[in-house]
Amino acid sequence: MTTWHTDAAGSLASIWRYPVxxxxxxxxxxxxxxxxxLAGDRAFAIIDRETGKIASAKxxxxxxxxxxxxxxxxxxxxxxxxxxxxxxxxxxxQLLVADAPDLPALLSAFLGRPVDVTQSVPExxxxxxxxxxxxxxxxxxxxxxxxLPPGTFFDAAIVHLxxxxxxxxxRAAYPAGxxxxxxxxxxxxxxxxxxxxxxxxxxxxxxxxxxGEQVRLRITGPxxxxxMTTLPQRELPEDTGILxxxxxxxxxxxxxxxxxxxxxxxxxxxxxxxxx
Length: 276
Known about the structure:
Elements lengths: L6 E11 L8 E3 L1 E5 L2 E2 L6 E4 L11 H4 L6 E4 L12 E4 L5 E3 L5 H9 L3 E4 L7 E6 L10 E6 L11 E5 H10 L7 H4 L3 E4 L16 E4 L3 E10 L16 H10 L2 E10 L1 E4 L3 E4 L2
Parallel strand pairs: 12-13
Antiparallel strand pairs: 1-2, 1-13, 1-18, 3-4, 3-17, 5-9, 6-7, 7-8, 10-11, 12-16, 14-15, 14-18, 15-16
C-alpha cells in the first residue's frame, strides 16, 4: 500500500478524448497518458484548402458545423489508439473513416468549404479565432490568427484539466447557464471533495499532481476560454453568458493546462494528489 505524504485533491471523475480537432469527442473509462498527451487525442485535423489554416470552431462562422460531428477511436483491445481507425459520425448518422480516400470530398460538401484531413502537422500551423463582444476581452468582434504549438494540433498545451468545484462555482454565478463538461472540452475532470468551493485549480499552477500510481502532471497555467464555450452542441444551446461569466468571475479562465512528467494509464476513480 502506498503511503501519501501529499495533499489530497480529489478523484478522477471523467476522461475525455477528441480524436479530430474541434469535433465532439468521446468519454472513456480509462486512457493512456503519453508524453504527447492522452493517446489518440487531436490525432487528426481539418485543413482549409484555400488558406492552409487549421479548421477550428474558434471561428464559428466558418467552422461551427464541426461541433455537429462526433469523432471516436476504434475499440479493438488488441491495438493501441494510434493503430485504430478514427470514425466520424455526421448529424444524419452517416459514419465516415478518418483516413478514407473519399473523406475530404464528403467533409468538404458537409462543411461548405474545400478541406483536407491530415495527421501531419503543417509547419507554422495556425488557426483563426473569433473574439465576440464580451466585457474585459480584447479584439472585440475581430478575428485573429493563433499559432499552434510546434508539432501538435493542440491550442496551447497537451493536457487540459478542470475540477467539479470550478463548474459548480460557475453554475452558482450564472444559474441559467448550462455549465456542462462538454462546453469546456477537458481531458480530465477532477471531482473535488465535498465542501471544496471556488476555482481551486488556480492554486495548483506551478505544482505537480499525481493521478493513481503512475501519472504525474505539471500544472503550467490557466486555460483562457474562447467563443467555443458559447456554441451550441447537440443538447446544449448557444449561450454567450457562459463566456461572460468566466470573464467576470475568473478572468476568463476555466480549468488549467498541464504537461506530462511521467506517463501511464489513468482510470475513473483514481485518487489525485498534489505532490509538490
